[in-house]
Structures are given as structure tokens and as C-alpha cells.
Amino acid sequence: MKGRDVTRCAYGKVSQWKGVLDPETWDEFVTVQRHVVPVVSRSLRDPTISPTRTWGGSNTFPLVMRWALLVPARYMVPVLESEFFAKWRYAVYPFVTEVRPIPGKAAVWYQSWKDLFTPELLADERVLLQLETGLGMINRAAQGQQISWPEHSDV
Fold it and tell me: Which residues neighbour 44 within 8 Å (Cβ) at sequence distance 6 or greater?
């Protein structure tokens, strides 16, 4: 998997080992430099998140979240915090201030993102805080309130 991203890795070949390896060995496998977590992290660095199209111009994020089924949340959450959530908030801002969707469309847009998160990730308070921050921006815009540019310190 070294030097690759999630679009070029064989999910099926990797996932078959999860049931074979004991939990400690699996953790070691997904976190070592050349395996799953580094590939997931690299895959989240490049994509641009579009405020008008759910996945931007690629299917990278849904593929990353498929790999999240293999990566324990304790490893996946820091990757999402460092590589994804700031970009996502920066997409929410123009979505609510420039695109100005009707509330129903905004809710569908938000839910399409949230639905990609595994139950394990949605159970993590840090992930929920990030998602709720974006939802709060959407709700404030729907109520006609001023929305400020998202800062890294917003969450």
C-alpha cells in the first residue's frame, strides 16, 4: 500500500485480514507507516470539497469512509481532524453564504456527509462536535443569522 491512496488500494484484499489477525496485530497492521492509516491520511490531503457537489469532483471521501470500517475510531478520528474537518467547514461556509440552499436541500447535503460516517465514528464526541459545528452554521444561515468564516479554533 505504500505510496498509494484509497482509490488504488484493494480494499477486499486488506479487509480479509481483519478477521484473521488478532486485535493487537490488526492495530499494528493498520497503523504502521506503510499500511492503512497513512494511506487514508494521504488520501484526504488532496481532495477539494465542493459546496455545490457533495464529494467535490471525486469519490475519494466515500472511499476513505469505506476504509474507516477497517480502522478503529481511535486512529481514524485524529486523521479526520487533521485532514478533513477544516476543509469540510470551509465548504459549508460558501454553501450557506453563496449557494444559499433552501433548508430542505441544506439538510440533505449535510445528511449525505453524515451518512458516510461509521457508527463507531458517530459515537465519538470529537466527530459529533465537528459535524454539529457544520450543522450549526447551516441552521444559523437558515434562520437568517450572520455566519462567520470558520476558523481552526471554531471547534
Answer: 60, 61, 64, 79, 80, 83, 84
Q: Binning pLDDT at 50, 70 and 90, where does residue 83 land?
A: very high
Grid coordinates representing 4 are 498509494
109, 55 contact by CB (below 8 A): no
Q: pTM of the full predicted structure?
A: 0.83
Q: Which amino acid is at 97?
A: T
Nearest to 67 by CA among 14, 123, 120: 14
Residue 9 to residue 26: CA distance in whole angstroms: 17
Q: Which three cell numbers stand for residue 12?
A: 477486499
Contacts of 10 (CB under 8 A, 6+ apart): none
Taking the C-alpha atoms of residue 21 and residue 41, their distance in angstroms, rounded to an integer, is 23
C-alpha–C-alpha distance, residues 135 and 60, integer Å = 22
